Amino acid sequence: MTYDISAIRSEFPALAAGVAHFDGPGGTQTPRAVIRAIGDALAQPLSNRGHETPGERNADAIVTGTRRAMADLLGAQPAGIVFGRSATQLTYDFSRTLAATWSPGDEVVVTRLDHDANIRPWLQAADRAGAVVRWADFDPATGELTVDDIRAVVSERTRLVAVTAASNLIGTRPAIAEICALAHDAGALTYVDGVHYAAHTLVDLERLGADFFVCSAYKFLGPHHGVLAARPELLETLRPDKLVPATDAVPERFELGTLPYEFLAGTRATVDFLAGLGRAAGPRRERLAAAFAALEGHERTLRDRIDKGLSQLDGVTVHSRAADRTPTVLLTFEGRDAADAYHVLAQRGVHAPAGSFYAVEASRRLGLGDRGGLRIGLAPYNDTEDVDRLLAGLSAYLAR
Predict the structure, then answer these.
(1) Could you tell me if 56 and 47 are in contact, meaning their C-beta atoms sit under 8 angstroms apart?
(2) Strands, DSSP E only, in 120-180?
(3) Which residues contact 69 (CB under 8 A, 6 or more apart)?
(4) pLDDT, mean of residues 369-373
(5) Alpha carbon distance 168, 373 (integer Å)
(6) What b/e string do you get for 214-251 counting C-beta neighbours within 10 Å, with b at 16 or more?
(7) 21 phi and psi, to 5 degrees?
(8) For residue 387, what are the CA distances in angstroms to 29, 351, 356, 381?
(9) Which of 284, 288, 270 is nearest to 222 (CA)?
(10) What pLDDT was estimated at residue 280?
(11) pTM metric for this prediction
């Protein structure tokens, strides 16, 4: 499958500024088709959802069309797609709803590898419910979080296992299907943070076995909002706080207030744009599979080029070491502050930010405190010229 990087880059107006973007894990640039879809939604009549007026019908078509698109992207059912302001907001909402079913002495598992958005909501919910928090550790030497690490803290009292599908800090992709199976054997539900994972790997909710899977459209070329996928029959068992006049239907009972229709229109366009990356034919899910296969091959080639270049630089420590990981690399520099490298690269038109990126527990476990390191993250529009500019900038920085 060919991956026409020149044609793909031409679809991103922001790239005309000349910056080499390695900040994809924090948010990607936006293709023209997505920008156009947002504008078109606002340019047409738009009202609260209904079936009588053009504005009502437009709003309803946007919501139902975007549910189908996200179901195709995540291997889920449209009736199990929930929209929210952000992945963090959705996790807080679901943590409160699930915690209402917990009793004192019940246990919740979180991991040191996760973004704080998949840790803190569960800690706070557990505290209010009187539940016990069990921490699963990862190996800082390898970056690996294994099934055995989860098994060590799961018991018959476990009610939920919250785990990342891919670390936004060091890229580690744990064996989620096996972890979910382990949790289910113990009678626990699983809440999987797929924000970083969904940007690089085609999600299959059924194969992963996740009860809840959350992601953010703006991490895979879309607008700023969150998406959660779950089985509709599971959502039917949950009773979230809601307004009296608001519908009790699933999935709408979890969506607070009026949805951002224009952003949902952008997300539907995003899924269609992603489906076109592989230039395949057929149903959208099949086109997405071909596209992600092509994307993974492209990103693997660039990651290998980065890894080879970094290996030739003295005084650089690479903390992304897991056998299965996304094209995301965390660096620190001997005797130097990673923030200085960030500033030097920015002056050269290369955007690779420094920090812990809300993965504060992982950063601390790596011995980096709250400062973290320099993060290099690839996105579908990166090319070899970007990589060479990055490596040249790092070489210049180290020579100072």
Answers:
(1) yes
(2) 132-136, 158-164
(3) 267, 268, 271, 272, 284
(4) 97
(5) 12
(6) bbbbbbbbbbebbbbbbbeeebeebebeeeeeeeeebb
(7) -90, 115
(8) 17, 11, 22, 12
(9) 270
(10) 86
(11) 0.98
Structure tokens at 11: 């679809």
SS3 call for 62: helix
**Do 35 and 222 touch, CB atoms closer than 8 A?**
no
Nearest CA to 355 out of 25, 67, 43, 71 is that of 25
The confidence band for 244, taking pLDDT boundaries of 50, 70 and 90, is very high
Nearest Cα residue to 83 out of 273, 267, 282, 327: 267
Q: State the pLDDT confidence band at 273, using cuts at 50, 70 and 90.
A: very high
C-alpha distances out from residue 229 to 61, 84, 390, Å: 19, 11, 36
Q: How many CA atoms lie within 13 A of 310 on its CB side?
A: 21
Please give the Cα distance from 132 to 234 (Å, whole number): 24
Give the residue among 185, 187, 138 at the shortest CA–CA distance from 163.
138
Left if phi > 0, otherwise alpha if psi is -120 to 50, otherwise beta: which for 325?
beta
Q: Which residue has the tokens 């947002």?
A: 38
Q: Would you call the peptide bond into 174 cis, given omega within 30 degrees of 0 as the criterion?
A: no
Q: How far apart are CA 400 and CA 395, in angstroms?
A: 9
